[in-house]
From TrEMBL:
Residues 1-18 form the signal peptide. The keyword Secreted applies. PANTHER family: NG37, VON WILLEBRAND FACTOR A DOMAIN-CONTAINING 10, TANDEM DUPLICATE 1-RELATED. Keywords: Glycoprotein, Secreted, Signal. This is VWFA domain-containing protein. Residues 72-294 form the VWA7 N-terminal domain. Residues 499-595 form the Hemicentin/VWA7 galactose-binding domain. Pfam families: GBD_Hemicentin, Ig_VWA7, VWA7_N, VWA_4. Residues 304-480 form the Hemicentin-1-like von Willebrand factor A domain.
Length: 1000
C-alpha cells in the first residue's frame, strides 16, 4: 500500500471529535462541525508527517508518529524541528487566513465556492492557482505560494460541502478537480431540474432521484440579494444568509455544518475535504520535493542566514571578514540543529544592487561569498536600502538579516518601504557599519566638504539606527579591524528558538532601570547594549550585583565589548533581573535567550463580511481608538497568558490590555487605545510544566518588531495575485484618513524594479475614501514563479503619518503543458537471497516528457535507501539507475516536468520470481480495471513467464471519469497468489489504495 493510500484511508476513518479551532480569528466554529481552518490544518499536519517520515527513512533513521490529535508543535518535534514551531504555526495561519479571506473577498463569486453549478469554473481556479503555487515554489517564493495555496484550498473544500458529490455516493475525493482540463463528472445542464422543495425543515430527500441515479453533479444557488432568482427546478445553497432558499424548490443542500440543510452528511463531506486537501498537498509536495515542501511550510531546523554586502571599492576588508565568518558559521553549524535552513546573499553597489542569491547548499553559498569583489562606488552613499528591500522580500519571515556597509544610504526614499516590510515580515535587521561613514577613504578635498560629510554621516547613521531599532536589531559601529569580532558575537545567537525578553531604546539617552523576568525554559541568556559612553550594572534575582570585571562566582559567563557594542552572556537564573543603565548618550538594550515558549500576534478587527468573525489587519492599526490583538502562545500545552501590554519603544509608557482566553493556546486582548508613538508587544504568563520548585513559573516575552498606529487606511485590491509577463496589470487602491484632509503623497515601489505608474498624490477629505491605481508590468522574459512585492504607501501632509499596503504577486506565463512525464522500465535485475544484507537489486528507468511538453525538470527519490543516479541521454531523455540492498526492496521515483506536472513511479522486489506487467490505462468509474497483460523483463537468476490476471470489479467506489496514465507493474509471484507490488506508475490518485487491495 502506498503512503497516500494509507493517508487517505486514515483520514476517511477519523471522526470529528477532538479537533479545535486553530485560530479564533476564524470565528466560524459551529459546535461539533469542522470549519475550513480545521480541515486545512488537519491535512497539513498529516501530509507534513508523511513527508518527514519519508525523509527520515531515506536517511536510514526511524520515525515515530506523535499521539493524536496532532498539533503543530508535536509534528515539528516528530520532524526533528522543534525550534521552528513558531514559523510552522505562522505558515499554517497564513494559509488559513488566505482560505478564510475567500469568504470575504469573493462572497458573491460562484466559481470560488463551486456554487450555482459553477463546478468547471471552480476547477479552473484550483488548477490555475496550483500552477502558480508550483511555479512560486520553484523560485523559492514560499510566502506567496502558501497564500495562493490557502485560496484554492477554500474552493476545493467547498466542492464537497456545496455540491452533491457525497449524496451521489462518492467515498473518495474527485481527483480530477486538481487536474487541468480533466473531466470532473457530468454537470447538470442549466435547464435540468435537480431538486424538489424540502419537507419543512427536512431536506434529506430534496435532490431528485434521477440526479442521484445518473450521478449528475449539481450545487446550490446562493445570493445575498433579497430579490434574487434562480433557474427553475434548481437546488439552493441554503443557510441563514441565502436569499434563494425560499424560492421553489425551497431549502438547500449545503453541508457546511451539522446544522445545515444536509448537515447529516457534514462529517462525510468534511472528511472528504480533508482527504482532497491532502491529495492537493501531496501534489505540491511531489512537484517541489520533500525538503522544499517543508521549507514552504516553514518547517526547518535553523534560521535563514542572510547577508547584504556593500561591494564598493573600500569594502575589501569587510568582505574578507564576511568570508571568514561565513566559513566559521558553516563549519560549526552544519549538521547541528542550528544549521541555517537557507543561505541568502544580496550584493549592493552604486547604482547596481542584487541579484538575490539563495541556496540550501553551504558550499554553494561559500562560492557566492568568495566571488564578491570590491569595486566602484565613486561617491560615498550606496544603494543599501535597495539591497535590504530585496532581503526583506526574499528571506523567510522572522529572519535575521545582516547588512555590511561603510557608507550612508543613497536611496533614503525607501525608508518607509523598508519599515513597512519590517513590520510585515517581523524580520530582524542588524547593520554592521565600519569607519562610521565620515572616515571612508573617499575624503573630500576641503574643510567645507568635510563638514558636509560629517553631517551626512550623522544622518546616515541615524537612519540605520532607526531601522535597526524598528526591527529589534543592532546598529553596530566598529573599525574594519574590529568587524570580524563583532560579527562573531552577533552570529552566536542565530537559533530558530531565539526569543526576546526585553527591548528598549532611548534617544536622547538617560539613566534608567530596566527589569525582565527569566523563566526556567530560557537558555543562552544574552544582553546586548549599543551606544557610546554607556555604563551599566546588573542585579540578579537573588539580589547579587554582577561584576563584569571579575566574573568569578557570578552569573556572568562572558563579557565582550567591541566598537559601540557590549554583550553579556549569563547563566540562567529564574526570577526578576534588574539592569541599570547610566548614560546621557543614545543607546539601545536588548535581552534575548533560547526557549520553546514564544508567541505570535496579529491585530484584528470585526469582519465586515456577512458571516461575521474577525479579519486580520495586514498593515498599521487605526490610531485614536480601541484595538484587539490576537495572541497565539506556542511551546507549551499548559502555559497561559495573563498580561499583554503595548509598551512604548523609546519611553516608559504602556497600555494594558484585557485578556480573554479562547482555548487551544489562543487569546484575544482588548485595548482601549493604542500608543501614539512606536511600541512593542509585551506578554507575560504562567508556565507550570516542569518548572523547578524554586521557580514561580512566570515568563515574559516581547516582540522584536516595533509597531505604530496610523490615522490613514490604505487598502489595495489583492483579488488577483498573478502577473502575466509583458502585460500591464492595474492594481486599484483606496486611501482614507481619520485626521485632517489635504493632499496626500502616494508612493509605490517594488523589489524587482518592474515598471510602475501611479498618481503622485491624492486629495483626501476626512472620513471619505479616495481611489487610485498602480500599473505594474513585468518584462516579457520574466520567468514564471518570480515573485514581486508591491508596496503602496500614503503619506500625510508634512510627513508625520503614513500607512501602506503590501501585495505579493507572482509572474506566471500561460501554461499549455498539462501532461506528466512517463516512466518506462528498461530493466529490473535482482539476485536477492534469504540473507538480504548480502545481495542487491538494480533498476533502470527511462523518463520522458511528451514531444510538445516542457521537458523533464527533475527525478527524485520519494522512498528507498539505495543509490540513485540520473543522466541525460543524447536525445534529451532522462535515464535513471537505482541500486539498493535487498533489505530495502521498495523504491518510489517522482518525475516532474518544467511546469510541475508529476508522475510517481513505484518499484519493488519482494519474491524469488520477478515479472514485469504492463496494464492498459485505468479508468475508475464504478471502478473496473482492464485485463492485465504482461510483458517480459530479463532479470538475473530469475525465471520469467507471462501472467494475465482476470478483470476485477470493485464496489463502493464512484470516482467518476478519473483516468490515470498507463500502469507499468512488476509483479512478484509465489505459489499461492499474485501480488501487485512493483511499479504502480500512474498519475497521482487514491487508486493506489484500491489497486493494492485488489490482490489482498
Amino acid at each position: 500500500m502506498t503512503k497516500l493510500a494509507v493517508l487517505c484511508f486514515l483520514l476517511l476513518q477519523t471522526g470529528v471529535e477532538g479537533f479545535k479551532i486553530s485560530n479564533i480569528v476564524f470565528n466560524h466554529f459551529n459546535g461539533g462541525s469542522l470549519i475550513h481552518e480545521v480541515i486545512t490544518e488537519r491535512a497539513i499536519l498529516n501530509v507534513t508527517l508523511q513527508v518527514c517520515r519519508a525523509l527520515a527513512l531515506s536517511e536510514g533513521k526511524t520515525f515515530s508518529f506523535p499521539p493524536q490529535p496532532f498539533s503543530a508543535g508535536a509534528v515539528a518535534a516528530a520532524c526533528d524541528a522543534s525550534k521552528s514551531t513558531k514559523s510552522f504555526i505562522d505558515t499554517i495561519e497564513r494559509i488559513q487566513k488566505s482560505n478564510h479571506q475567500v469568504d470575504k473577498d469573493y462572497v458573491l463569486s460562484p466559481s470560488h465556492h463551486c456554487d450555482d453549478e459553477s463546478i468547471a469554473a471552480g476547477q479552473f481556479l484550483i488548477t490555475l492557482g496550483l500552477t502558480a503555487v508550483k511555479a512560486s515554489n520553484k523560485q523559492q517564493n514560499f510566502v506567496l505560494a502558501t497564500s495562493i495555496l490557502g485560496e484554492i484550498l477554500h474552493t476545493l473544500q467547498d466542492f464537497y460541502s456545496h455540491t452533491n458529490w457525497v449524496e451521489i455516493g462518492n467515498t473518495f475525493p474527485n481527483s480530477n478537480l486538481i487536474k487541468t482540463n480533466a473531466d470532473v463528472g457530468k454537470i447538470a445542464d442549466i435547464t435540468r431540474p435537480t431538486c424538489r422543495s424540502c419537507d419543512g425543515k427536512d431536506c434529506r430527500n430534496n435532490i431528485l432521484e434521477d440526479i442521484l441515479k445518473e450521478q449528475i453533479l449539481t450545487s446550490g444557488y446562493f445570493s445575498l440579494n433579497p430579490f434574487s432568482t434562480k433557474p427553475a427546478g434548481k437546488c439552493s445553497h441554503g443557510g441563514s444568509f441565502d436569499r434563494t432558499k425560499g424560492i421553489e424548490p425551497t431549502g438547500g443542500i449545503n453541508k457546511d455544518s451539522i446544522d445545515s440543510e444536509h448537515g447529516h452528511l457534514h462529517n462525510q463531506a468534511a472528511n472528504l475535504a480533508i482527504a482532497a486537501t491532502s491529495e492537493l498537498l501531496e501534489d505540491v509536495r511531489s512537484a517541489a520535493g520533500d525538503k522544499a515542501f517543508l521549507q514552504m511550510m516553514g518547517l526547518f531546523k535553523g534560521r535563514a542566514l542572510c547577508f547584504c554586502v556593500d561591494t564598493t571599492g573600500s569594502m575589501g576588508d569587510d568582505i574578507d571578514a564576511v568570508r571568514t565568518v561565513t566559513s566559521s558559521i558553516i563549519d560549526s553549524k552544519v549538521g547541528t540543529e542550528d544549521e541555517p535552513s537557507i543561505y541568502i546573499l544580496i550584493p549592493f553597489n552604486d547604482p547596481e544592487f542584487g541579484p538575490l542569491l539563495q541556496t540550501t547548499d553551504p558550499e554553494v553559498f561559500k562560492s557566492y561569498i568568495n566571488s564578491l569583489t570590491p569595486n566602484g562606488g565613486g561617491d560615498a552613499p550606496e544603494m543599501s536600502l535597495s539591497g535590504l528591500q530585496l532581503a526583506l522580500t526574499g528571506a523567510p519571515p522572522n529572519s535575521e538579516i545582516f547588512v555590511f556597509t561603510d557608507a550612508a544610504a543613497k536611496d533614503e526614499h525607501l525608508k518607509n518601504t523598508v519599515l513597512a516590510l519590517i513590520e510585515q515580515t517581523k524580520s530582524v535587521v542588524n547593520f554592521m557599519i565600519t569607519d562610521v561613514f565620515g572616515l571612508r577613504r573617499r575624503r573630500q578635498a576641503d574643510n567645507n566638504q568635510q563638514q558636509q560629510s560629517v553631517r551626512m554621516s550623522r544622518a546616515g547613521g541615524q537612519l540605520y539606527r532607526d531601522l535597526a531599532q524598528a526591527s529589534g536589531g543592532q546598529a553596530v559601529e566598529v573599525t574594519k579591524g574590529q568587524l570580524l569580532e563583532a560579527i562573531n558575537i552577533l552570529t552566536e545567537s542565530t537559533s530558530s528558538s531565539l526569543v526576546s525578553l526585553l527591548q528598549a531604546s532611548r534617544n536622547p539617552g538617560k539613566s534608567e532601570n530596566f527589569t525582565f523576568v527569566v523563566d526556567d525554559t530560557v537558555k543562552n541568556l544574552t544582553i546586548y547594549i549599543t551606544g557610546t559612553s554607556v555604563d551599566f550594572s546588573l542585579i540578579s534575582p537573588s539580589g547579587v550585583i554582577q561584576n563584569i570585571a571579575n566574573t568569578t562566582g557570578s552569573s556572568i559567563i562572558s563579557y565582550q565589548s567591541v566598537g559601540n557594542l557590549q554583550t553579556v552572556q549569563l547563566q540562567t537564573e529564574g526570577g526578576l533581573w534588574e539592569l541599570q543603565i547610566l548614560s546621557t548618550s543614545p543607546y539601545s538594550v536588548k535581552v534575548v535567550g533560547e526557549s520553546p515558549i514564544d508567541f505570535l500576534f496579529k491585530f484584528i478587527k470585526e469582519s465586515d463580511s456577512p458571516f461575521g468573525g474577525f479579519d486580520v489587519i495586514d498593515n498599521r492599526p487605526t490610531a485614536g481608538g480601541n484595538a484587539s490583538l490576537l495572541v497565539t502562545l506556542i511551546g507549551s500545552d499548559v502555559a497561559t497568558v495573563s498580561e499583554v501590554m503595548l509598551v512604548e519603544s523609546s519611553g516608559s509608557g504602556q497600555v494594558n490590555g484585557t485578556v480573554e482566553a479562547q482555548g487551544g493556546g489562543t487569546f484575544i486582548i482588548h485595548f482601549d487605545r493604542i500608543p501614539s508613538v512606536e511600541f512593542v508587544v509585551l506578554a507575560k504568563g504562567q508556565n507550570n510544566n516542569g518548572v523547578s520548585r524554586a521557580s514561580s513559573g512566570i515568563f515574559q516575552r516581547q516582540s522584536a518588531t516595533s509597531l505604530r498606529a496610523s490615522g490613514l487606511t490604505v487598502t489595495a485590491d489583492d483579488l488577483n495575485t498573478v502577473l502575466e509577463p509583458g502585460t500591464p496589470r492595474s492594481v486599484s487602491f483606496s486611501v482614507m484618513t481619520t485626521g485632517e484632509g489635504g493632499s496626500f503623497t502616494i508612493r509605490a515601489t517594488n523589489d524587482q524594479g518592474f515598471t510602475l505608474s501611479f498618481p503622485s498624490s491624492l486629495q483626501l477629505d476626512p472620513g471619505v475614501s479616495a481611489n487610485g491605481s498602480v500599473s505594474i508590468t513585468a518584462p516579457a522574459d520574466t520567468p514564471s514563479g518570480i515573485g514581486v512585492t508591491l508596496t503602496i504607501e500614503a503619506v500625510a501632509p508634512g510627513g508625520a503619518d503614513s500607512n501602506y499596503d503590501v501585495l505579493r504577486l507572482t509572474v506566471l506565463s500561460k501554461v499549455t503543458d498539462f501532461t506528466p512525464p512517463v516512466c518506462q522500465l528498461l530493466s529490473l535485475q535482482s539476485n536477492c537471497s534469504d540473507n538480504c544484507s548480502r545481495s542487491t537489486w538494480e533498476l533502470s528507468v527511462q523518463v520522458t516528457d511528451a514531444a510538445n511538453g516542457t521537458g523533464v525538470d527533475s527525478v527524485s527519490l520519494r522512498e528507498g535507501s539505495g543509490t540513485l543516479n540520473i543522466s541525460t541521454a543524447a536525445d534529451k531523455t532522462t535515464l535513471v539507475s537505482y541500486v539498493a540492498s535487498c533489505c530495502s526492496p521498495d523504491v518510489q521515483l517522482v518525475a516532474v516536468d518544467q511546469v510541475g506536472n508529476m508522475e510517481i513511479c513505484s518499484y519493488s522486489v519482494r519474491a524469488n520470481v520477478t515479472q514485469a506487467v504492463t496494464t492498459s490505462p485505468v479508468i475508475t468509474s464504478n471502478v473496473t480495471t482492464s485485463p492485465v497483460t504482461t510483458s517480459n523483463v530479463t532479470t538475473s537468476n530469475v525465471t520469467t513467464s507471462n501472467v494475465t490476471t482476470s478483470p476485477v470489479t470493485t464496489s463502493n467506489v464512484t470516482t467518476s471519469n478519473v483516468t490515470t496514465s498507463p500502469v507499468t507493474t512488476a509483479v512478484t509471484a509465489s505459489s499461492t497468489r499474485v501480488d501487485f507490488s512493483v511499479s504502480l506508475c500512474f498519475g497521482f490518485s487514491v487508486l493506489s489504495f484500491l489497486l493494492h487491495s485488489l490482490s489482498l
